[in-house]
Structures are given as C-alpha cells and as structure tokens.
C-alpha cells in the first residue's frame, strides 16, 4: 500500500489486555493515514479472567487516557465478541464497521502487523486494504499480564510494566487495583501456572481432550456454576476430562451425572442425543490446548428433573434459553458459544 494514501477510516483490531506502547504507536500510525479510526476491541463479552482481566469499558477508558484530546475525537470504539468461527468473526467485524461508517463502500484500511498465526486475520477482510506497520517493539500482552500478577506488590508490578506501557496506563492500573478483582485473578493465574508446570517436562506440548453436555428440556437448558479454578464461580455446561477407558459419549454422560445428578435410562439418553460437535480453537481454554467434544441432548417436553451441583460444580440449575444472551459475560471460556452453536441463541 502507498504510505501516502489517505483513507476515510482506519481499523485496528485487538484485545488490548493490557494496553501497551506498541499498540499506542499502532493507533497513531492508523490516525496518520486516515481521518477516523475504528478500534475493534476483541473478547468484548468474555468474563473477567487472568487472560481477560479488563472489561470492554475498562479497556476503552485505558486507551482513551493515553490519547490526546484531538486523537480521542477521531477514534471510535466498537465491541467485538469472540465467536471462535473466523468467517463469522470477520463478517461481524465488517458489519460493525459498515454500520459505523454508514456504508460498506467506505475507503477502509486495516492497520496491524503480521507476526504469527494470531495475525493471519489481517488478510481475511475482502474489500479492505491492509497497512502493515512492521515491528513496533517486543512487547507482548501475556508477559505484561504476568508482570501484573506476579509482582508481589502492586508497586513492584507497576515498576516491571514501566517503560512498556503509557504512563497513563500505570495510573489506570493503580485505580483499577482498588476494585475487588486483582487478588482473585492473581490466585487463578498462580493455579494455572502450577498446572502448566506439571507438564513442562513433556517431550511434546500437551493436548487435552474433554467432553461437554448441553441438555435441553422444553425451553430450559442445564447449567452449572463452576466450583473450582479456572473459572471458579462462572457459568458453564456440565463436562470434564475424558477417561482412558471411555468413549467421548460415555465420558459426557458420566460427567453430566457427577456434576448435576441428572440421570436417565441409557436408552433415553441415546435417543435424546441429537448432535455432537468438536470445539478446537487453539485459544478456547486458558488451560492450554484443549479440544472438547460437546453432545447435545434434547429431552423434549417433560417435567424438569431435580438436579444438584456436586463434584466440580458448586451449583446446577435449569435456565430459560431466553435468558442466555443477558448472561453471556458470566460464562467460562467458550461455553456460551457452545450453547449458541446448538441453540442458535442469536445474541444481541
């Protein structure tokens, strides 16, 4: 692309967890080649977790604080949810930009840097030009989050971040740390790190296989509230790790029974099983590379059986499907999207 070309809109896409100097430089390059900039903030509806410590609104505020008054006037922030389906994700992004600009034919340039497989999306948007800004430093969000969680004291963490994030981000973190989230996130980060360390000596990166059960009766779906990290306190569908001597289906039925007490005759469960899908996005789980087989059971029109949370579930309950969109930000990992795949929730 001709560096002198001027566009109506530049688009920058990122999770900005947490916002750093390289991202600020990227936004400023976008504003140098376009009159306006749309910042699409990814993972906008994900629950708060070590990987996603800040909400959409918090990230918008952190970025705005780093911009000048003139820059703020030219930047618009757009929430972009995870769908774990690239074609749908690209379509959502382009629709959001078309609604913002008022036309699908506006002159748009996507600004970013192709560095690895996580940035393959840069060439997935038909009709948009691409401006590769090149390497803007060796700053990585995961390493910055690690510094935030492992610094011992807040000031030690901020000292480790200094020089890699805008000064305004340090002040934002001082204020944010007064909210009741950081201690829980640090604990969950430590528990995940301990789990990862157990596999550090493996000759190959581990790939885990899990199962999940989506159970529907009439207009209700069976959910649990997780009793353990990761995702303690968040909503999920019943599930867990596959056992050595079980099929995926057998493990799904067993986990369903163990976590909720839900039990029917084997013939009834087999008849109710309508579909199975594999969810294998590399980033779907904070545990690492986890591939799950999700089974969909539709029990039709019958009385809701009694259930109770047990094993890894602190709670089990029937939830009206119509209420799921309002609960999206309370779900663990990609479990809302597993439900959407079978139930066609059509979130707003």
From TrEMBL:
Coiled coil: none annotated. Keywords: Nucleotidyltransferase, Transferase. Gene3D superfamilies: HUPs (3.40.50.620), Nucleoside Triphosphate Pyrophosphohydrolase (3.90.79.10). One of its GO terms (molecular function) is nucleotidyltransferase activity. This is Bifunctional nicotinamide-nucleotide adenylyltransferase/Nudix hydroxylase. Residues 206-342 form the Nudix hydrolase domain.
